[in-house]
Structures are given as structure tokens and as C-alpha cells.
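Priority: low. Protein: Armadillo-like helical. Input follows.
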Amino acid sequence: MAPLSGDGVLWLCLGISLFFAVRGIATDIRQVVDLTEIKRDEREDKIISEGTEEALKLDTLLKLSESTSHDLRAAALRIISERSTKGETRDILLADLSSKNKTRRGKAINALHFLVSNRALSRTSVCTRLRDLPTYTALVNCLCNFLDEHVEITSNTLSPILPRTRPLGEKKAIQILNSLLPENIPCALEAGVVSQWLTRYPFPCVTNADPSRRRDLFMLMKTWWADDAVMSSIFSTLTSHPDGIRQLRKHGLMGSMIEEENDQDDDDGDSDVWMVDGEDTAGTSGTFGSFRSAPRPQESSLEEQALRRRRREAMVLSEGGRPLGRDDIIQRPIQEG
Ligand SMILES: *[C@@H]1O[C@H](CO)[C@@H](O)[C@H](O)[C@H]1NC(C)=O
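Result:
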């Protein structure tokens, strides 16, 4: 195949893929059955084997991606995607991801997000081609570039883990990391996911509180996972690997043995989502015990919600057996206004 060159072609084909992805969503839902059939029946992989894949011209692929046949469309999409994650095209994609130019970066983020999250591509080698050092390095650069953009208040959510200044586009980049991180944790660590990025990330509980409270971040992440499920999932993935734990601890984002023991206590498999589980939280006995397994409040008043939140935080911050004191409660400046 003639290698794709120039980002014009890349964005053309990814743009078209995106268009069909969006258009495809409605039909996707109706065609869940068809999709499962495709999974059982590997025919199309035989028809479009490696040789034929390389021989197909881009225009042909684009025509195929307009086909009314779901199978053909999906196959064309997969080939376009595989092509865009190798060779020169991949280099352009990664360079744009690292770029400080927001237009280029935004396009690269959209393209990569599409590539790693589209179900139709799950059987391709797209993710396996994106689990090397250059990819993780580009992604860490991209995430670090977002750090300087935490300037404007963009959200009203008061949370110990979710900054109110999250810039537009950052979430998508974090989602990409969340998809790619499990592929190769040591490599991502080498690229600086913790040492370059997380250690500088403006988590409210880290920036607002006493520096010695930095190490509570991990516990707060577990308790308040719903405030920022993607970020929590990244922490969950990192702590599934000994090197991840080592680095978080080295950079002071994960603390004492108490947290560690709790990790082992609730070792119930590889669930991606952390449930709030008061049983494992330090200092649950006594007054605050009754708040332990309360569902996220919906019916109660805002005041009650705020109170509960603070108490739950206090529970987490309280260290084994020591009575809770004022210092254990994170006071957020605006909340009590
Ligand atoms: C950013 O990249 C776009 C597209 O490549 C280009 O048109 C634009 O001039 C660049 N902006 C800056 C500030 O360099």
C-alpha cells in the first residue's frame, strides 16, 4: 500500500470514520444481534485478510465505509483505523497529541479516543499498537500540557478529588489513558504517568489541604470515586500493579499501611469500579458508623448532603482508633460561604 502521508489524509479518513461512527450509533443499537453474529462468524476476517487489506485503496475503503452493509462498514472502519496506527500516520498522530497547538491536539485526542473506545474496533490490533513508550509519552505530554490550563472555574462540583478547573478536552484525554493504561502499566509508569503527571495534578484535596494530607489522596479517590470515575479507575489500575503502588507511594500520593491493609481486605477481583465500603474505612466505629453504607444521597437536603460528605471524608481521614477532631474534616472554603 502507498503509505498515507500528511495529516490531511489522516484527518480526512479519521474524520470520515468519526462521521460514520456517529451515524452508526443508532443502527448499532438495533444491530446488537448482528454484531454478536459477526463475533461468532469470523468470515469477514478471512475475506479481508492481510494481503487484501494492504491492497485496498483509501478511496475504496471510504466507499466501503459508506456501504449500507454493517459488516462492510465495520470492516472498512477497522482497516482505516489499523492504518492510522502504524508507520508515518501514527507518528503524526502522536506528534499532534503532544502538540501545544490546541487545534492539532484536539483532533489527535478525538481520533485516538475514537480508536480506543469504538466497539467495532475491539478485535483489531489498534490497542496493542498503542501500548509502547512513544504512545504513553505522547499521552503524558498531552496530559501535562493540560495542567497549565487549569485556570478557569469550569464546574460547580465541589469534590475532594475532582478539580473545578478541569479544562475542556482533558476528560477525553484521561479516558484515553484509562483505556490504554491496563495494556502496559510498567511502560506507562516509565513514560511518567505518576512522576510527571499525577504528582502535579491539582486534586483539590492535595492543593487545599495540609501537605501532609497528600497521601490521603488514594483513600479519598476510593471513597469519592463517583465524582471522577475515570480518574478513580486510573488509580485502581495503577494500584493493581506493584510498580504502580511503589510510584504512588514514592511521590506521596498514597500513604500509610492502613490503606495498604484495606486494599488487601477488599481484594475481590479486578472490579473497575470501587464501591464505597465503610467497613474497610478507618475509624468507622461510633457516631459515624450509621453513615457507612448510605447510598449517595438524593432525597436529602443539600445541607444534609454536605454534612454527610464531610463526615465521610472525616472517616477516611481519621486514622485507626484516634477520635475524630476538627482537623480531620476538610473544609472547603466556598461550601459554608
Ligand atoms: C495550529 O495548527 C493548525 C492546524 O495545523 C494551524 O492551522 C494553526 O495555524 C496552528 N496554530 C498555531 C497557533 O500555531
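The chain has a mean pLDDT of 71. The pocket of 2-acetamido-2-deoxy-beta-D-glucopyranose is lined by residues 101, 103-104 (CB under 6 Å).
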